[in-house]
């Protein structure tokens, strides 16, 4: 999934990706790395180092007027991602275009941060480098772009960060430092062994960095901790210290380290480009700095989240509307009928629900699931039948008349659940077709017995027998059972403290069909909402099949 829409708002590539076809027509050195895919779109193979280098050099030339050279054996930066970092530094230092002084720790062969900062904002840079090849290329790139007055590239000893680089400049106060630290601790991590989630796809681009650019003892975590250690000694020599991170898991321990050291100001952000995510951390010892707010935790929630949904075709709506009339549904609109049927199913499942005001031509329910009652429903019904069979038969003829037909009805219901498209016929109840009077009696007795079963069902779905004073054992009084259940269940979904999940169920009209959507609100497990959605869909479809 592309994350370009989450780029920094001022990033020029946020809403307008580079036009490879146009760039290829303008720059012959880039054209040889552009191919046309089956859909006719111009594409670049990001696993080819030459192609990545050609793209970076072309974008810097086209969009920033910068001409650079990069060896293939050294890190080739991507322009949109580096531009995100530059814009965030602008936010850290109030975004003013007046001359500012910054330090780029490990500038690399491209010297891209100083070149962008100097050419865009007129910033002065001290760019440090430990690698001989990177130092030579960085120096040459600064000179050929005529930025030597703004960018000073210095060669520093191995493992030098800030202390040694600033020991000769005791009076200069810098506004910020930037750093793209080595991400990996060893070769195995650099190759993705034991450092990458097995479920993630392999990287979409090639890694061309040299040893000093991609690896350091302890990886990025220890590298940044060394910068934090230097900052504790330098303190107000820099207004802002910052680093970019390649692993999100590094962010929390580094923030904890800053808190432990008593650093008063800190913030962080995310850098997004294509399928690549990076994180950045900044801290300051100044009290008067403006601290940019970190990314909101709601950012991911703000992304368009598709609800769970299913569609009922218009041919099924009339059948469902007729089905709902038996449930005292007075509404003439099909959406009202569907909502009524789902309310019945939710009541049977003991899923708390209430209607929510909404616009016309729409129905809306707020659902609160307290327990998972929609899984293994057939098993639970069979267990109820088994327990019912084991109950001693009451001597009263009404109890006998109520019990026997119920078994036939429940057997019929199980047969229906075994195959959704199997029609229930008279043969599924007995070998001989019953008379009309017996069928009516069976139906009435079955409904009465089913009502009793529902009323005496406990929280775990078991039947609760109760013995009378006369010594006969019968079913518990339905009135007392109903009052007990009502006392245990909250009157409103909003009054529940412990629940599995909450969701909003919408019933919408869509070109004659009905669309049912379930929007996640909060809870423990989204898979449970998916299961309930499937259950409701099957319930409605079975209701159509039985009509």
From TrEMBL:
<feature type="compositionally biased region" description="Low complexity">
    <location>
        <begin position="397"/>
        <end position="408"/>
    </location>
</feature>
<dbReference type="GO" id="GO:0120048">
    <property type="term" value="F:U6 snRNA (adenine-(43)-N(6))-methyltransferase activity"/>
</dbReference>
<dbReference type="GO" id="GO:0070475">
    <property type="term" value="P:rRNA base methylation"/>
</dbReference>
<feature type="region of interest" description="Disordered">
    <location>
        <begin position="391"/>
        <end position="443"/>
    </location>
</feature>
<comment type="function">
    <text>RNA N6-methyltransferase that methylates adenosine residues at the N(6) position of a subset of RNAs and is involved in S-adenosyl-L-methionine homeostasis by regulating expression of MAT2A transcripts. Able to N6-methylate a subset of mRNAs and U6 small nuclear RNAs (U6 snRNAs). In contrast to the METTL3-METTL14 heterodimer, only able to methylate a limited number of RNAs: requires both a 5'UACAGAGAA-3' nonamer sequence and a specific RNA structure.</text>
</comment>
<dbReference type="GO" id="GO:0005737">
    <property type="term" value="C:cytoplasm"/>
</dbReference>
<dbReference type="InterPro" id="IPR017182">
    <property type="entry name" value="METTL16/PsiM"/>
</dbReference>
<feature type="compositionally biased region" description="Polar residues">
    <location>
        <begin position="421"/>
        <end position="435"/>
    </location>
</feature>
<keyword id="KW-0808">Transferase</keyword>
<dbReference type="GO" id="GO:0043488">
    <property type="term" value="P:regulation of mRNA stability"/>
</dbReference>
<protein>
    <recommendedName>
        <fullName>U6 small nuclear RNA (adenine-(43)-N(6))-methyltransferase</fullName>
        <ecNumber>2.1.1.-</ecNumber>
    </recommendedName>
</protein>
<dbReference type="Pfam" id="PF05971">
    <property type="entry name" value="Methyltransf_10"/>
</dbReference>
<dbReference type="GO" id="GO:0009896">
    <property type="term" value="P:positive regulation of catabolic process"/>
</dbReference>
<dbReference type="GO" id="GO:0001734">
    <property type="term" value="F:mRNA m(6)A methyltransferase activity"/>
</dbReference>
<keyword id="KW-0539">Nucleus</keyword>
<feature type="binding site">
    <location>
        <position position="82"/>
    </location>
    <ligand>
        <name>S-adenosyl-L-methionine</name>
    </ligand>
</feature>
<dbReference type="GO" id="GO:0051254">
    <property type="term" value="P:positive regulation of RNA metabolic process"/>
</dbReference>
<comment type="similarity">
    <text>Belongs to the methyltransferase superfamily. METTL16/RlmF family.</text>
</comment>
<dbReference type="InterPro" id="IPR029063">
    <property type="entry name" value="SAM-dependent_MTases_sf"/>
</dbReference>
<dbReference type="GO" id="GO:0003723">
    <property type="term" value="F:RNA binding"/>
</dbReference>
<dbReference type="GO" id="GO:0005634">
    <property type="term" value="C:nucleus"/>
</dbReference>
<keyword id="KW-0694">RNA-binding</keyword>
<feature type="binding site">
    <location>
        <position position="106"/>
    </location>
    <ligand>
        <name>S-adenosyl-L-methionine</name>
    </ligand>
</feature>
<keyword id="KW-0489">Methyltransferase</keyword>
<keyword id="KW-0963">Cytoplasm</keyword>
<dbReference type="InterPro" id="IPR010286">
    <property type="entry name" value="METTL16/RlmF"/>
</dbReference>
<dbReference type="GO" id="GO:0006397">
    <property type="term" value="P:mRNA processing"/>
</dbReference>
<keyword id="KW-0949">S-adenosyl-L-methionine</keyword>
<feature type="binding site">
    <location>
        <position position="129"/>
    </location>
    <ligand>
        <name>S-adenosyl-L-methionine</name>
    </ligand>
</feature>
<feature type="binding site">
    <location>
        <position position="180"/>
    </location>
    <ligand>
        <name>S-adenosyl-L-methionine</name>
    </ligand>
</feature>
């Amino acid at each position: 999934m592309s994350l370009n829409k989450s780029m920094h708002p001022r990033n020029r590539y946020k809403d307008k990706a580079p036009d490879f076809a146009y760039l290829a027509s303008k720059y012959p050195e880039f054209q040889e790395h552009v191919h046309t895919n089956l859909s006719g779109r111009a594409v670049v193979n990001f696993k080819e180092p030459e192609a990545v280098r050609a793209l970076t050099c072309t974008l810097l030339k086209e969009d920033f007027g910068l001409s650079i050279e990069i060896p293939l054996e050294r890190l080739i930066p991507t322009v949109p991602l580096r531009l995100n970092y530059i814009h965030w530094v602008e936010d850290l230092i109030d975004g003013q275009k007046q001359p500012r002084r910054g330090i780029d720790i490990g500038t690399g062969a491209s010297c891209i941060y100083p070149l962008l900062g100097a050419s865009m904002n007129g910033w002065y840079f001290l760019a440090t480098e430990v690698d001989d090849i990177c130092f030579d290329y960085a120096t040459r790139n600064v000179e050929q772009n005529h930025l030597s007055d703004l960018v000073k590239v210095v060669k520093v000893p191995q493992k030098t960060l800030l202390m040694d680089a600033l020991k000769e400049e005791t009076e200069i106060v810098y506004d910020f430092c930037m750093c793209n630290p080595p991400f990996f601790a060893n070769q195995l991590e650099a190759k993705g062994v034991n450092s990458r989630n097995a479920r993630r796809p392999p990287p979409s681009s090639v890694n061309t960095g040299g040893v000093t650019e991609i690896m350091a003892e302890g990886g990025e975590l220890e590298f940044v901790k060394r910068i934090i250690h230097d900052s504790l000694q330098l303190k107000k020599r820099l207004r802002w210290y910052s680093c970019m991170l390649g692993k999100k898991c590094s962010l929390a321990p580094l923030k904890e380290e800053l808190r432990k050291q008593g650093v008063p100001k800190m913030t962080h952000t995310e850098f997004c480009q294509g399928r690549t995510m990076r994180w950045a951390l900044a801290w300051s010892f100044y009290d008067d700095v403006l601290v940019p707010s970190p990314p909101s935790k709601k950012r991911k929630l703000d992304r368009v989240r598709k609800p769970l949904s299913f569609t009922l075709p218009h041919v099924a709506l009339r059948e469902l509307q007729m089905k709902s009339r038996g449930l005292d549904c007075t509404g003439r609109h099909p959406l009202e009928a569907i909502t009524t049927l789902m309310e019945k199913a939710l009541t049977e499942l003991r899923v708390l629900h209430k209607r929510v005001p909404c616009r016309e031509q729409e129905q809306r329910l707020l659902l609160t699931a307290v327990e998972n009652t929609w899984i293994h429903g057939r098993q639970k019904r069979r267990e109820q039948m088994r327990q019912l069979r084991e109950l001693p038969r009451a001597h009263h003829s009404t109890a006998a008349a109520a019990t026997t037909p119920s078994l036939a009805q429940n057997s019929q219901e199980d047969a229906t659940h075994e195959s959704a498209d199997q029609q229930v016929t008279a043969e599924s109840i007995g070998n001989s077709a019953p008379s009309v009077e017996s069928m009516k009696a069976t139906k009435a007795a079955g409904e009465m017995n089913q009502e009793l079963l529902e009323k005496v069902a406990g929280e775990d779905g078991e039947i609760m027998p109760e013995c009378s004073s006369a010594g006969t054992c019968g079913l518990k009084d339905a009135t007392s059972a109903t009052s007990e259940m009502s006392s245990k269940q909250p009157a409103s979904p909003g009054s529940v403290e412990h629940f599995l999940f909450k969701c909003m169920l919408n019933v919408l009209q869509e070109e004659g069909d009905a669309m049912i959507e379930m929007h996640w609100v909060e809870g423990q497990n989204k898979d449970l909402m998916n299961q309930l959605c499937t259950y409701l869909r099957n319930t409605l479809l079975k209701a159509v099949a039985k009509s």
